[in-house]
Amino acid sequence: MVVHMCNLTPVSLTVGANRIVPTISIPYPLGDPATPKEEQWKLRLHRVGVAIDAMHTDITEQTVFKVRI
């Protein structure tokens, strides 16, 4: 089972990824160096948590999982 984490979700959909978790940017998918380290930690923890939940979710079609901004 795979969860594709990326910021270009239309590309993930095109190539057939089943479980997709949006990330923040290409060079920094799980963080934002312009923010304080505590904020980066929260962003990373949330995105990875969504990805883990996605792995345990039964799906029947391609699914883009929601993340908070």
Description:
This protein is an alpha/beta fold. The chain has one domain. It has helices at about 10-15, 35-55; strands spanning about 5, 20, 65. It has a 3-stranded parallel β-sheet, with helices on both faces. The longest helix has 19 residues, at about 35-55.
General form: globular
Q: Helical region count? A: 2
Number of domains: 1
Structure class: alpha/beta
Mean pLDDT, all residues: 94
**Can you list the strand order of the major beta sheet?**
1-2-3
Low-pLDDT residue spans: none
Considering DSSP H and I runs of 4 or more, what fraction of the residues is helical? 25-40%
Helix-strand pattern: EHEHE
Strand content: 5-15%
Outline the secondary-structure elements.
Layout: E1 4-6, H1 9-15, E2 19-22, H2 37-55, E3 63-64
Summarize this entry quickly.
It contains two helices and three strands; from the N terminus they run E-H-E-H-E.
